[in-house]
């Protein structure tokens, strides 16, 4: 899965390879904290680790930006219980600045 970067008005993808390839945020964070990998993640997710000096942000001049986290689902009066549970979980456990 390529990483997407921005420079000015130009957006470009970079194929990323390395000693560790995972598809799980927790595993990626463990690899990053261990010093064996870099991860591409939303800045608010890494905010506490950056503030304590545990990790540092790199390639910030190429970081793409978004105004938040979005979830699109069909408009219905009755939301499926699984979807309702997911929405409630995200609102409770993700950093507030990601879910506003």
Task: Summarize the structure in words.
This protein is α+β, with helices and mostly antiparallel strands and 100 residues long. It folds into two domains: 1-65, no CATH class; 67-100, no CATH class. Helices cover 35% and strands 10% of the residues. The chain contains four helices and two strands. It has helices at residues 25-33, 43-51, 81-93, 96-99; strands at residues 3-7, 10-14. It has a two-stranded antiparallel ribbon with strand order 1-2. Strand 1 and strand 2 (10-14) form a beta hairpin. The longest helix has 13 residues, at 81-93. The two termini are 27 Å apart. The mean pLDDT is 83.
Largest sheet: 2 strands, antiparallel
Cα radius of gyration in angstroms: 16 Å
Biggest sheet strand order reads: 1-2
Q: Can you count the helices?
A: 4
Please give the share of residues in helix.
25-40%
Q: In total, how many domains does the architecture comprise?
A: 2
H/E element order: EEHHHH
In quaternary terms, these chains amount to single chain
Mean pLDDT over all positions: 83
Shape: globular
Low confidence ranges: none
* Class per helix and strand makeup: alpha+beta
Q: In angstroms, what separates the terminal alpha carbons?
A: 27 Å
Number of strands: 2
């Amino acid at each position: 899965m390529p990483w997407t970067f921005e420079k000015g008005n130009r957006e470009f993808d970079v194929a990323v390879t390395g000693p560790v390839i995972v598809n799980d945020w927790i595993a990626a964070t463990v690899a990053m904290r261990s010093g064996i990998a870099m991860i591409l993640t939303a800045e608010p997710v890494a905010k506490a680790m950056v503030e304590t000096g545990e990790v540092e942000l790199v390639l910030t001049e190429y970081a793409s930006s978004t105004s938040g986290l979005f979830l699109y689902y069909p408009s219905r009066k009755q939301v499926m219980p699984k979807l309702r549970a997911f929405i409630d979980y995200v609102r409770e456990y993700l950093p507030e600045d990601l879910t506003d």
